[in-house]
Amino acid sequence: MIWTDVRVGFTCNNACKFCDQAETGDASSEALERRLRELPHRDGVILAGGEVTIRPDLPALVATARRLGFRRVAIQTNGRVLAARGASAHLRAQGLTDAIVAIHADRADVHDWLVSVEGAWRQATAGARAAAASGVNTRLATVLTRSNLAALAGLPALATRLGASGLRFIVAREEGRARDTARMMVPRLSLAAEALEPVLDAALAMRIDVEVVGVPLCLLPRHRALAADRLDSSPVHHAFAIGAPTTRARAYAAPCQPCRLRHACPGLDAAYLARHGDGELPAAPPLATLLVTRDTPGRVLKQALVRARRLGATHLRLEGDAEHPEWHNLVREAARLGLALQ
Ligand code: SF4
Known about the structure:
Blueprint: E1 3-7, H1 29-38, E2 44-48, H2 58-67, E3 72-77, H3 87-94, E4 98-102, H4 108-115, H5 120-133, E5 137-144, H6 155-162, E6 166-171, H7 179-185, H8 189-205, E7 209-213, E8 237-240, E9 250-251, E10 268-269, H9 270-276, E11 287-292, H10 298-310, E12 315-320, H11 327-337, E13 340-341
The structure holds iron/sulfur cluster.
């Protein structure tokens, strides 16, 4: 299933303190229809804002997407409008299949403070419940900030009560219209991961689909499979009808160079790494690199391995000529010496 993310605009009825949306205008109905027609994949489309549900043309957009052949049409929403009588059922009738509803805490006071609207949690939870009750596959999305790490534990139970099938946790980042406030909201990744682990355990025990975005794999040792932004998992395509896409600028640190998870790991936000450094990442294991060239005798290469082990290396990277007649012997010798191959 390939999802394409179409951004419809910027206007919103919340004012989230961590909002990472870039300042853009709102796309016209015609521009959005054109964009939908141009999309190469007709699997699933996610209509995202700003806030999509405050657009009067949303039901028509959903119907257009289904008419164009999209098998699934999702909205990413703060959920408040979905609580209005008949709103969810009407969207369902137009062909809406999925809703991702932003609920940032298991309690109203924390959520309302984060989105700067009194009463927003009550409306968002009612909206999620109404969407699920009308047959829309509903998932909850929670942005992890410094202010809600202590208000996550009840989210799996809340999701179950609302009829939601999944939970997605996304680490706040320094980007977009709330960049200045967001800087203060971005949690330390190690603390976010620590708060998240028991919540992920609980969600899995309740058979709730759960995923995480923005946490490097080394900080999620028991839940690496839940990282939705793994580089080896299927991507969401971004089709921005307006403005330029905001993308996570990935960065990797010194401990990432020898890391065996590097090929799959989304790394860290560049701004985060610049601000906080790499002290939260596990230290790189002592690594020796052996350059194998055609002319180097096998005896010399084996001596180099023994010397590396004596000097404290626990990991080995073999580089160079894999056709060297001693290559396989070197691999065996490394294992005998207790050197893990990278
Ligand atoms: S690549 Fe870097 S951030 Fe990712 S798991 Fe490895 S050490 Fe951690």
